Amino acid sequence: MTVAQTLSEYSALKPYLQMKTSLERFGKIASELESAQKEQLKTWVNQQLKLHQKVLTSKEATQVSITSAQISHAIQELESRFASSEDFEVTLEANELDRNSISTALNLELHSETVLDYVSLDFPQFSEEQAKEYYDNNLEKFEQPERRKTSHILITINDEFPENRREAAYRRMQEIALKISPDTFGEFAERHSECPTAMNRGELGLVEKDLLHKELDEFLFTMGEGGLSPILETEAGYHILYCEQIFPAHCIDFEQAKDKIIEKHNQVAKAKKQKQWLSTLLLNEQ
After folding, report:
1. Quick count: other Cβ atoms within 10 Å of Cβ 6?
2. For residues 60 and 50, what is the distance between their CA atoms, to the nearest angstrom?
3. pTM of the full predicted structure?
4. Average pLDDT per run of 10 along the chain, which is 286 residues long?
């Protein structure tokens, strides 16, 4: 699809940007927004439309093209964010869009993004030597605190349910505590824990200090690797912790950090190049 063709269907972009921006910024479609939010949305969308129009009418836009495969992939990726195809279709309709117009809008958006990639191809690449210098001058940024791979079982306290009243909940947890071991902890968490983590065998992931309830945090960081805690109480209820593995505090070495340092600085340099190009476009308009 040529630039001229996409611009002739430019009107498809506005409702798409309204839908996308409203969902990203407010978590709901434009028609559900309050008056002040609608005004904010209008401002943001108009700014985006202006930038897209400038990019798509630039001479650089004639140097790139978008394939139908790219558009199809973009539609699939967008649809995957919704619970079902039906939800996707309903949201499109609520925003005065259909699959044809969303295809046109995504083509425009992809074309703009590709132009920005094109004009920033020659951004200054961050070298390994520069990365090493950055690492040496910012060692504190690469310090990793002690972390513990942790799981838990929770029985909540809730007087509305007889089995969750304080005494009953504690007895249930006592029964679990008598039966569990490190090898069976995940199985018991799946069957008995009343925390959403039960779906993942009670796993809390890698835990740093001061992330959990104070009562849990204080005990967890006294535990040995592979240990189980006694029954602990927080405002949420009764818990048993399993400290599966301890990762001591350390400094990430340069070889591990190098690629991310280079990637981060290259992203900044690329964005700067794109911003300079856009500024020139807008300046020429005046």
Report:
1. 22
2. 17
3. 0.69
4. 53 91 91 93 94 92 94 94 91 91 94 96 96 97 96 95 95 96 96 95 96 95 96 96 96 96 97 95 75
Strand ranges inside 121-211, DSSP E: 143-144, 147-156, 203-207
Domain-by-domain residue ranges, the chain? 3-119, 124-140+254-286, 146-248
Q: Which CATH number does 146-248 carry?
A: 3.10.50.40
Nearest residue to 8 (alpha-carbon basis) of 133, 104, 87, 74: 104
> Which amino acid is located at 60 in the chain?
E
CA-wise closest residue to 248 among 112, 159, 147: 147
- List the one residue out of 99, 87, 86, 75 whose CA is nearest residue 29: 87
Nearest to 146 by CA among 207, 77, 201: 207
What token pair was written down for 74? 């973009």
3-state secondary structure of 25: helix
Q: β-strand 143-144 against 250-251: which pairing, if any?
A: antiparallel
Task: Identify the H or E element spanning 233.
Answer: strand 232-234
Closest listed residue to residue 205, CA positions, set 224, 192, 187, 220? 220
Cα of 183 vs its chain's centroid, Å: 33
